[in-house]
Amino acid sequence: MTNTTQDKERDDIFDTDVLMQKGNNSNPIKHEGNKKSFLFKSMIFIMVFLILSILYRGFQLLITNDYLFRQMLNEDAPEMPKWYPIVTIVLGVLALIGIFLVNNYKRVGVYMVVISLFASAVIQPEFMADGTLFTMFSLFVFIGYGLAIVYPYWYKFK
Questions:
Q1: Which of the given ranges, 44-48, 71-75, 124-128, has the highest pLDDT on average?
Q2: pTM value > 0.90
Q3: Per-residue CA distances from 22 to 11, 18, 26 (Å)
Q4: Tens digits of per-residue pLDDT, 58-117?
Q5: Cα–Cα distance, 87 to 58 (Å, whole number)
Q6: Hey, what long-range contacts does 67-73 have (CB within 8 A, 24 or more apart)?
Q7: pLDDT at 148
Q8: Does residue 141 or residue 28 have the better pLDDT?
Q9: Are 58 and 89 in contact (CB under 8 A)?
Q10: What's the distance, CA 5 to chain centroid?
């Protein structure tokens, strides 16, 4: 039986000259133009809404000085420190400022959002179980959805 060109194994499949030809390179994704896309605007809107919900929950903690599920723990519930609601609000404000910086194409805004939401999620499980869910959801939305939207605009960020 004779080998045809279809039956032959390609010898050049791992040849770096073939693999690195110009035709095989992918083009980087870049958003052209000065206008923001609908997806970018919707990401900013969604993140502002989510961060405002975190701020609202922190404000409720500050006003009531009580946290969710405390009545279920009865006398075993730990006392919430006075600094806790204030730190929750400060981290929420930092995340909100970060979102506005992302909207203005500032790289520091991306890092501010991620770091402040992560820090907020780290301190919340003890006293604010529902707040942890808000924060983790916001963090996952920004990392999963937000960064996929920000990536084509990254070259515009200063």
A1: 44-48
A2: no
A3: 20, 9, 9
A4: 888 888 776 665 555 555 666 777 888 898 899 999 999 999 998 888 889 999 999 999
A5: 9
A6: 67/127, 67/128, 68/128, 68/129, 68/130, 68/131, 69/129
A7: 83
A8: 141
A9: yes
A10: 50
How far is Cα 105 from Cα 151, in angstroms, rounded to an integer? 11
Distance CA 94, CA 58 (A): 13
Length of the chain: 158
For 1, 77, 109, 139, the CA distances from 136, given in Å and listed in that order, are 63, 23, 18, 5
Specify the residue for token string 């179980």. Answer: 129
Record the tokens describing residue 70, joined without a space.
């405390």
- 135, 53 contact by CB (below 8 A): no
Q: Transcribe the chain into DSSP letters.
A: ----TTTSPPSSTT-HHHHT-GGGPPPPP---SSSPPHHHHHHHHHHHHHHHHHHHHHHHHHHH---TTHHHHGGGPPPPPTHHHHHHHHHHHHHHHHHHHHHTT-HHHHHHHHHHHHHHHHHSTTT-HHHHHHHHHHHHHIIIIIHHHHGGGGGG--
